[in-house]
Amino acid sequence: MSEVKILIVEDESIVAMDIKHRAQGLGYIVTDITPSGEEALESVANNRPDLVLMDIVLKGEMDGIEAAQKIRDAYDIPIVYLTAYSDERTLKRAKITEPFGYIIKPFEDRELHSAVEVALYKHQMESKLKESEKWLSTTLESIGDAVIATDKVGKVKFMNPIARDLTGWSSDEAIGQPLSEIYKIVHEETGIPVDDPVEKVVANDAIIDLPRPVLLINKSGKEIPIDDSIAPIKDENGGIIGVAIVFRDVTQRRKEAKEREELLKDKARGELSSFMVSALPVFASNIPPQVRNSIASSFADRFEKNMKPRFLEEMEKCLAKKGEDAKSDPKILFQCYLSWIGEFLSNLGIGTDSDVDGKKAHLDFDSCPWDSEGAVSPIFCLICRVIVIRSFTWTSLHGHAEQTHCLLDGNHKCSFEFTLSWDDS
Fold it and tell me: Is-above-0.70 flag for pTM?
């Protein structure tokens, strides 16, 4: 058992010493015994225990419930109440402080041990969940496209800043509302409303694109041309728990676009953003590495299914520009691949630099929008690894790709190395 530090807050000295001896007998370290709420706060500040055993009824101006609330708010330390009272009024008031357990005096050693261990476990799980939720929220807030997430029946659960700007709805106004009230889209040519996309995604369990072109009608009635992709959000068991709508204003791009190719690139970028958003809850879960690797493999298969056809089209175009003999030249094929992967990553805000030296080639990430997040969470590095290594296999070139540097390993950037088999002459 690891050394768990416990603070005992009890105003009856004999009872307090008995609890101390019991706790020490169970292998816990007792940092202090305090008889009042005020002294408990001071002791917590000085000793930072892992858990507080708090008597509800204390002498002085501050009772145990008030002291527990202050400790939880300031230090997020789990509280287990000690009380000889089990009346409804006392328990109802105590519940407000969200304690991690109760022990009714008198109690046995096994009851103390169980209460402490359960409280520590619950607090650990709660802390991990809060960390995951905070990271997930930060990630969604920073994605460059507009994102709206709903539950499986289409009630809005989340909107990032870009989505709020485009729709004209604040989060407070939108949360809990049906998606159709917030995200009103119509066919641009006919003005006919687009069918509810949530029902279609849930029914088909697949990423869908809305028919082009469509207009978003925002809160003020302004019409905004958009591209979007809609994907199911799944839990770690594969069950659908909601839907993610990823969209972007294409007004300026329409003005600048001279070729259909630009619109296809936007669509690909939107699909990839949908992949990322739909996978976030699973990658963010606190699951063993071997399970995460299995999920990453499944994610790679989805990536290939949706992206490989467009990749092959782009490679055909590139090779056609290089001349009749380009298809049989592995070096030209690889240069087309480097051009494609560089542009693909650029659409995600990742700047790259590549070089080829004989049978070795390197792809370095010069800039990454997720530097700070990638250093603490595996999702970004896992996704980039999938994109590079899996897409290289689509070229059918003899050789292999591997990641040589990764943010997760403390490096300042991610890098990949390609080992190629061809004639250098």
Answer: no
